[in-house]
Q: What sequence folds into this?
């Protein structure tokens, strides 16, 4: 058996109960170092732990696949939810195994941010730039989202300086493409708190530096009007 689980936004308190049960019964637990460290208190002592980084992930996933095919119960952990910003990693797991694998969703940093910042997903678009390959289509999509007067929740692209697309890069790019520099913008780095680490305008964000573990909210200029019916006795 092999299953991929979303481990939540870096806090074990957000791990779904079913995922905790899968970890407790696993023979093998694998994932990137930071993610494995989050769930380590739930990993049984008898389980083999296979940690990896960006450079050795293919070789390490081949080890996991071999153990899976040998009949071991294998759990591969992802930060957040597999289908938000881990889809390329899922492809690598399935390539190593040679077949599709089962997935268990997790709570994402985007969901936590929406709750903390009180924005509705019906009025908000989520875009992750935390991926390999050409980011151009995703950058264009972000511009269109803001032009359509929707909120945007964005996971930046960290990695090396030559390729990174962090909140200050995103802000500068958006303004270069005609987006209003006065849009209210927030950068969250610790989602267990109730307040954003930083908030200001898009123009101010272009001058702000933050850590790799950040997520960004850009609010639309005019919030969508509520369509809830007026309270009883209200004057029409």
A:
């Amino acid at each position: 058996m092999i299953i991929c689980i979303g481990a939540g936004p870096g806090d074990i308190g957000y791990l779904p109960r079913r995922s905790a049960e899968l970890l407790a019964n696993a023979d093998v637990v694998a994932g990137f170092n930071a993610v494995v460290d989050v769930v380590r208190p739930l990993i049984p002592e008898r389980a083999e732990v296979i940690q990896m980084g960006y450079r050795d992930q293919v070789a390490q996933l081949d080890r996991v696949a071999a153990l899976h095919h040998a009949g071991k119960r294998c759990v591969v952990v992802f930060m957040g939810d597999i289908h938000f910003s881990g889809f390329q990693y899922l492809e690598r797991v399935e390539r190593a195994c040679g077949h599709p694998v089962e997935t268990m969703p997790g709570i994402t940093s985007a969901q936590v941010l929406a709750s903390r910042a009180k924005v509705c997903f019906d009025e908000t678009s989520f875009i992750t730039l935390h991926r390999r390959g050409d980011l151009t289509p995703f950058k264009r999509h972000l511009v269109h989202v803001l032009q359509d007067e929707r909120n945007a929740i964005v996971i930046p692209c960290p990695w090396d300086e030559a390729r990174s697309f962090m909140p200050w890069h995103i802000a500068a790019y958006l303004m270069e493409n005609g987006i209003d520099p006065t849009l209210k913008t927030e950068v969250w780095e610790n989602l267990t708190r109730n307040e954003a680490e930083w908030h200001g305008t898009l123009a101010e964000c272009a001058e702000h530096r933050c850590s790799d573990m950040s997520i960004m909210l850009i609010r639309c200029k005019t919030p969508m009007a509520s369509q809830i019916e007026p309270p009883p006795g209200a004057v029409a």
About this structure: The first strand starts at residue 2 and ends at 6.
